[in-house]
Amino acid sequence: IDSKEMSNTVRVIDYIEETIGIEEFKELFPVILTDNGSEFADPEKFEKGINGEKRTRLYYCEARHSEQKGELEKNHEYIRYVLPKKTSFDELTQEKVQLMINHINNTSRPKFNGETPINKALKSFDKNAMEKLGLEIILPDEIHLKPDLLK
User: Fold this and answer.
1) Residue at a domain's end among 67, 88, 110
2) Which stretches make up the Integrase catalytic domain (predicted)?
3) What phi and psi values does residue 27 have, to the nearest 5 degrees?
């Protein structure tokens, strides 16, 4: 995302829909959890797809209520392992973000009985859609959640 403007955020959601198709989008993203940031100010722009069809629902989580965000908060914790506070995001590219996300999604979670989010997703969703989104399997001994991952 180039900036935290709503038009850029909507463009990313539209891109995902274009990449995997409306039916797969609805299956993967029945609800999008977000905060009350201005980039999410108009829920209809997110909830209606490219052709005007309902594709998802937006749920605004309350400030300081991490229990409303499920595993999302754990992902934020893992992001901070790679991008500690005060790290500039100016040099981040889509490729670097994708690499970090793949390492995070291949990290086993106690909440999933040691299973990884990516393997859990592959049991429920189309592998082709996952590949189109750039999601890849990374072996456990290759997971690296430290700042030098993106060097």
Assistant:
1) 67
2) 1-125
3) -70, -45
- Which pTM value belongs to this model? 0.85
Handedness of CA 12, 82, 107, 71 (dihedral sign): negative
The residue range of the domain holding 85 is 70-151
User: Which residues neighbour 15 within 8 Å (Cβ) at sequence distance 6 or greater?
Assistant: none
pLDDT in tens, 91-138: 999 999 999 999 999 999 998 999 999 999 998 888 888 899 999 999
The token pair at 55 is: 């594709």
Which tokens hold the place of 115? 């299973």
For the segment 43-90, what is each residue's pLDDT rounded down to a tens digit? 999 999 999 999 999 999 988 887 887 767 889 999 999 999 999 998
If you write DSSP's letter for every residue of the chain in order, what string do you get?
Answer: --SS-HHHHHHHHHHHHHHH-HHHHHHH-SEEEE-S-GGGS-HHHHHB-TTS-B--EEEEPPTT-GGGGTTHHHHHHHHHHHS-TT---TT--HHHHHHHHHHHHTS--GGGTT--HHHHHHHHS-HHHHHHTT-----GGG---SGGGG-
